[in-house]
């Protein structure tokens, strides 16, 4: 595939993920590749490639000859997801603390600072992109392709659930994510594991609170 096509696919993927997360594409609704292409002013090839990636991450369901459906987010699926995510997230943080390169550690320090700025400014869009990058950098630093394959859908679906149910008074998890980045950057496996567990604890509590709404 040509470099331009790869770039278009990556762009389509990022934009479609954003539209799913922020419910610009309605949960439960059906869309065609043509509709999505018109929304993004892009051709069918990058849209199709991006949808395949999103389907693998369970962000969309593809039904041949029917279209693309945006799955409905439920508390039950989020709790099941977190059961799986906790041990993998902790392992990922430990490996990242052990294996991150100096360049990756410096990037994590920047992300820790940046994600806190997003929270202070109540900038959900920037927080989304920072959190997405935090997840990618953490997985990349683990240097384990199997962790990457497992974590991508788990992290993406967790992001979607949080943004869907977030309210203005929601306790912000930016500090918790920053603690993971800082622990990994310092090479401290124990602190990295503890910080990762705190993130999952927060997400469990956040999920269970939806019972009261």
UniProtKB/TrEMBL annotation:
Q: What is this protein called?
A: GntR family transcriptional regulator
At the top level, the lineage of the source is Bacteria
Which Gene3D superfamilies does UniProt cross-reference here?
GntR ligand-binding domain-like (1.20.120.530), Winged helix-like DNA-binding domain superfamily/Winged helix DNA-binding domain (1.10.10.10)
Q: Which UniProt keywords apply?
A: DNA-binding, Transcription, Transcription regulation
Where does the HTH gntR-type domain start and stop, copy by copy?
6-73
| SMART domains attached to this UniProt entry | FCD, HTH_GNTR
Q: Pfam families in the record, alphabetically?
A: FCD, GntR
Entry-linked PANTHER family: GNTR FAMILY REGULATORY PROTEIN, TRANSCRIPTIONAL REGULATOR, GNTR FAMILY
């Amino acid at each position: 595939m040509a470099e331009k096509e790869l770039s278009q696919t990556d762009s389509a993927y990022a934009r479609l993920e954003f539209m799913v997360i922020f419910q610009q594409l309605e949960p439960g609704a059906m869309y065609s590749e043509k509709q999505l292409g018109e929304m993004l002013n892009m051709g069918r090839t990058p849209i199709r490639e991006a949808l395949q990636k999103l389907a693998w991450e369970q962000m969309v369901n593809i039904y041949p000859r029917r279209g693309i459906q945006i799955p409905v987010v439920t508390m039950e699926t989020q709790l099941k997801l977190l059961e799986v995510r906790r041990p993998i997230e902790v392992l990922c943080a430990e490996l990242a603390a052990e294996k991150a390169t100096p360049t990756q550690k410096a990037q994590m320090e920047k992300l820790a600072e940046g994600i806190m700025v997003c929270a202070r400014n109540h900038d959900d869009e920037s927080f989304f992109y920072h959190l997405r990058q935090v997840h990618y950098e953490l997985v990349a630093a683990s240097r384990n392709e199997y962790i990457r394959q497992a974590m991508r859908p788990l992290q993406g679906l967790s992001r979607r659930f949080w943004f869907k149910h977030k309210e203005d008074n929601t306790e912000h998890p930016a500090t918790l994510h920053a603690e993971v980045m800082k622990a990994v950057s310092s090479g401290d496996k124990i602190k990295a594991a503890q910080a990762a567990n705190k993130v999952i604890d927060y997400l469990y509590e956040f999920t269970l609170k939806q019972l009261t709404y």
